[in-house]
Amino acid sequence: MFGYRSNVPKVRLTTDRLVVRLVHERDAWRLADYYAENRHFLKPWEPVRRSRI
């Protein structure tokens, strides 16, 4: 994007049923959907946030 490459190594762990990799900016919509769909389940592990003003 800015003409340079990241020094962060590509991490990818693969099994028959799962792929674990670093998150990318292009994954933002997937993460937003995941958190929205699982909000109630994840609530005990989420940090306490101030309410919006």
From TrEMBL:
<protein>
    <submittedName>
        <fullName>30S ribosomal protein S5 alanine N-acetyltransferase</fullName>
    </submittedName>
</protein>
<keyword id="KW-0689">Ribosomal protein</keyword>
<keyword id="KW-0808">Transferase</keyword>
<dbReference type="GO" id="GO:0016740">
    <property type="term" value="F:transferase activity"/>
</dbReference>
<dbReference type="GO" id="GO:0005840">
    <property type="term" value="C:ribosome"/>
</dbReference>
<keyword id="KW-0687">Ribonucleoprotein</keyword>
